Amino acid sequence: MTNNHSYALILAGGSGTRFWPLSRDAKPKQLLNLLGEKTLLEQTIERLEGFVPNENIIILTNEIQLELVREVAHTLPTENIYAEPAKRDTGPAIALGAGIIAARDPEATMVVLPADHMIEDTENFQQVLSDAMAVASESPSLVTIGIKPTWPCPSYGYIERAGPSPLTPAGIKNFPHEVTCFREKPDTLLAERFLKRGNFAWNAGMFIWSIPTLKHELAAHCPELASFVDKFENTDCIESLIQNDFDRLTPISIDYALMEKAAHVLNIQANFDWDDVGSWLSVAKYLDDSEEENKTNSPLVQIDSSNNIIFTEDKKTQVALLGVDDLIVVQTGDSLLVANKHQADEIKKLVGKLPEELH
Q1: How far is residue 210's CA from residue 101's CA, in Å, rounded to a whole number?
Q2: Is the dihedral of CA 176, 177, 180, 182 positive or negative?
Q3: C-alpha to C-alpha distances, 343 to 52, 338, 346, 349, nearest whole angstrom
Q4: Fold that domain 6-269 belongs to in CATH
Q5: Which residues of 210-243 are buried (b: 16+ CB within 10 A; e: fewer)?
Q6: Does position 1 have pLDDT exceeding 80, yes or no?
Q7: pLDDT tens digit string along 297-345?
Q8: 119 SS3 class
Q9: Domain boundaries, the chain
Q10: Which of 47, 84, 98, 156 is buried deepest, with most CB atoms within 10 A?
């Protein structure tokens, strides 16, 4: 059921350089049809259907992506889509979204969601968010959603969970746990120890809190962002406030600015599927299987070739492989990428060496 005091803030301004050449500055991962016929941003919006009213969904992006985001998010009011005038990391971005929401409803409960995650189990996703919103609206807590680790990944931050919280409203199905601390991205050996201990979750960047609780915690731990949020309740022109004040904010992540310092942080473990689709290796899981464990979205023939990932923009190009293994091959209308699979996370390093028109 929708709740008129429930709001969602979708962060949709990333660059997605690991997905070059398909991803570009003006059309990053969340605006691509990587997985299915709809973009990741469209899927994020649809996942909220029946849970948060469309008029209560706010999207933050940047100037270069603004028009395309408005086109993709055509089911939302145009005035709900804002461009950050400068890149300031997740702390200021979330403060901006909270300010916009606070100006509309000072007692709102809001969920923060990245625009580029893959989640197919909408029913359990909404149940977890519903439980998290119940906790956040009935207690002075900042709530995080954690993902149960499936392997010792060194690319994610981790949340160390303690025992169940006494701040558990009646009727919820997913119970909150106290958070001991947030852990930075570990090396593989440390991540393995986290998994063996069994009380760690991946930090998925999904947060839930009431506006009063957020403002209280920001005032205690990040006065600059607290002051910025307060300005929205006393302005006649939100756009002017954003243009005049946002780029003055100190760049900082929400984890550093707030989550690692806040007095009351709880964690609910997700019971739905989740993938942050962080590289071409992640995309491969959703592509068709071909011979010799090759993954492709295009017609493929191969001889003595295995464990390759093939992605063509038109999905019709005939690809032929001969005697090659462990490659990523991505073709677009103006570019061709051939990379070693084991260096997938380093594709972003190529972008700075390319002509500006290919960024």
Answers
A1: 10
A2: negative
A3: 39, 11, 5, 10
A4: Spore Coat Polysaccharide Biosynthesis Protein SpsA; Chain A (3.90.550)
A5: bbebbbbbbeebbeebbebbeebeeeeebeebbe
A6: no
A7: 999 999 999 999 999 999 999 999 999 999 999 999 999 999 999 999 8
A8: coil
A9: 6-269, 280-358
A10: 98
Whether the pTM exceeds 0.90: the reply is yes
Half-sphere CA count of 193, side-chain side, radius 13 A: 6
Bridge pairing between strands 109-114 and 6-11 = parallel
Tokens of 188: 């593989």
Q: Where are the alpha helices (DSSP H) in the chain?
A: 40-46, 66-72, 90-104, 122-138, 188-197, 211-221, 223-231, 238-245, 254, 280-284, 348-351
Q: Tally Cβ neighbours within 10 Å of residue 302.
A: 19
3-state helix, strand, coil in the chain (%, to 5): 35, 25, 40
| Residue 4 burial (C-beta neighbours within 10 Å; 0-12, 13-18, 19+) | exposed
The helix or strand, by DSSP H or E, that contains position 259, with its residue range, turns out to be: none
Model confidence at 54, pLDDT cuts 50, 70, 90, reads: very high
How does strand 57-62 pair with strand 142-147?
A: unpaired
Closest CA to 81 of 54, 105, 51, 50: 54
Distance CA 110, CA 8 (A): 5
Q: Please give the Cα distance from 359 to 278 (Å, whole number).
A: 18
pLDDT one-digit tens code per residue, 201-227 = 999 999 999 999 999 999 999 999 999
Q: Which two structure tokens, joined as six digits, stand for 105?
A: 């409803």
Contact 217, 211 (CB under 8 A): no
Whether the predicted pLDDT of 197 surpasses 60 = yes
Do 294 and 308 contact (CB within 8 A), yes or no?
Answer: yes
